[in-house]
Amino acid sequence: MGSLRILVADDHDLMRRGIKTVVDAHKGWEICGEALTGSQAVAKAQESTPDVAILDISMPELNGIEAAKRILKVSPKTEILVLSVHYSDQLVREVMEAGIQGYVVKSDSDRDLARALERLAIHKAFYTSRVSDVIADNTRGPLAPRDERPKPRVTSRENEIIQLLSEGKSSKEAAVLLDISVKTVETHRANIMRKLELHTVSELVRYAIRNSIIEA
């Protein structure tokens, strides 16, 4: 393999160190940046334009899928590899719709991480076996919804607000982080609660956990 510059974004120090061990074992591979949040990952990707960005699905401020969408805008040649403790029809759908080429379940990372990076280095997709099985099971039609009566689709901005509110941020704090007005946050919040038929913040938190927007 040739040289490969890798950005690692995960708020767990142990996971970042594990990834670094895998990268250091390959000649020519290097960690060109580390991030603890999705927002940091986007900023560092714009600054360093890595060959591959490894993103945890569940990160503070901005989850891995939303961070991936932004990275692909500011650094279009960067390949994305998402890591998650979960896999489901819903997550696979969101990953593929975002244009993400790599998906590894964390419990498979010892076996699959290096293989995934090798594939992404030559711009080929890699999905861990359990994710590939979900895709294969749905080749005859669209990926099945998580529930029989799926919730209405929320926008990327609404997902960002769901994550921040579920993490305990106030509307003012969310407004500062997203660089929008408090009134806009409140409008989005009202639309989210109406769309998802939720009535309390605790219900919103449960929704965020169930849909892997935040970790339990």
Characterise this structure.
By secondary structure, the protein is an alpha/beta fold. It has ten helices and six strands. It has helices at 13-24, 38-48, 64-74, 89-97, 109-121, 129-137, 156-166, 171-178, 182-196, 201-210, and strands spanning 4-9, 29-35, 52-56, 79-84, 102-105, 126-127. A six-stranded parallel sheet has the order 2-1-3-4-5-6, with helices on both faces. Strand 4 (79-84), helix 4 (89-97) and strand 5 form a beta-alpha-beta unit. Helix 7 packs across helix 10 (201-210). 36% of the residues are buried. Residues 139-150 have low confidence and may be disordered.
Q: How would you classify the helix and strand content by structural class?
A: alpha/beta
Categorize the overall geometry: globular
Sheet with most strands: strand arrangement: 2-1-3-4-5-6
Rg, Å, rounded = 17 Å
The strand count comes to 6
* Total helical segments: 10
Distance between the termini: 38 Å
Strand content: 5-15%
SSE run: EHEHEHEHEHEHHHHH
Q: Main sheet, how many strands, which sense, barrel?
A: 6 strands, parallel
Contiguous uncertain segments of 5+ residues: 139-150
Average pLDDT metric: 85
Instruction: Classify the helix fraction into a percent range.
Output: 40-55%
Describe, in short, the structure shown.
The chain is α/β, with parallel strands linked by helices and 216 residues long.
